[in-house]
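Readers outside the structure-tokenisation community will struggle with the description of the input data as it stands. Showing the layout once, in full, would remove most of the difficulty. For illustration, here is how one protein appears when written out as sequence plus structure tokens:
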Amino acid sequence: LLGQILDQWFESEPLKATLATDAVIGAMASPHTPGSGYVLLHHVMGELEGRRGAWGYVAGGMGALSQAIACSAAARGAHIFTEKAVCHVLLGKDRRAQGVVLQDGTEVRSKLVLSNASPQITFLELTPQEELPKDFVQRIQQIDTRSPVTKINVAVDRLPSFLAAPNTPDGQPLPHHQCSIHLNCEDTHLLHQAFTDATQGHPSSKPMIELCIPSVLDPGLAPQGCHVVSLFTQYTPAVLAGGQPWNEQTRNAYADRVFDCIEAYAPGFKASVIGRDILTPPDLERIFGLPGGNIFHGAMSLDQLYFARPAPSYSGYRSPVPGLYLCGSGAHPGGGVMGAAGRNAARVALEDFKAL
């Protein structure tokens, strides 16, 4: 249990709760859930430009990272097709993957196929089921994809001013505006209570909020004087109690609750909002192809990690279909913007390619 680990090392409850948020981020779990300590380790084990445990903003927004990867690939001869939905993996007479078929019927031939989609989409929707072992299909069907996350993107006409550290008269950003700001995280009990609400099918009455203002470091993201605020919130169940759907009313009711919480820390925040985009778990699934809205393509629980990700005997990026590889967050070592799964999968695929 993460709570026990933190109690051994720290006395300050706000500090313990702040660290605990990285143990439950993206997870339908509380700091008291067995195995939650690993999720914290997963989020602090890496480094950024030589600084261990550091995270950073991508200049130009997260889309700029995709563009950088695309430019690097194109410079080495890759052909990139966008807005071209894949219908299914194309198999040859030898039952090897030999390309993909697009929804418009176009066949794209290749010697190997690497899928960055989730295990569910890759193996349950894009791969002919008769080519997969039944126990493998069953394992993929049973992957825990529960997600507590609702992402809210906000445009504001001024910088938030927090009671704990009010803005200066000139309104210029302060050091804390450049960091990740955690709200409703004064103690681990608050996080556990927020989790408990969601297990009963209700959005948290006092949700955990991670607030970032990337435009402070990257002014090009917003007009002068304005800012974009990124809210990573939980816990929101994918299926609400009583079968109530996530619709405009329930989305806005939850967002209003989040904004009321922020208002208590930063009076005037609600009046500064000029636009917002609310993405609940079903929205994240529909728009981005994330099963259950899970940002990691599957829970980062100990039974779904290492040799068991995405399934026992298939953690080495190869799939039951020769020539088809899984290279996304559903593969080892799991989620996070680090590229480890893709790099590892590419090395395995290159090894096989040389042997063809």
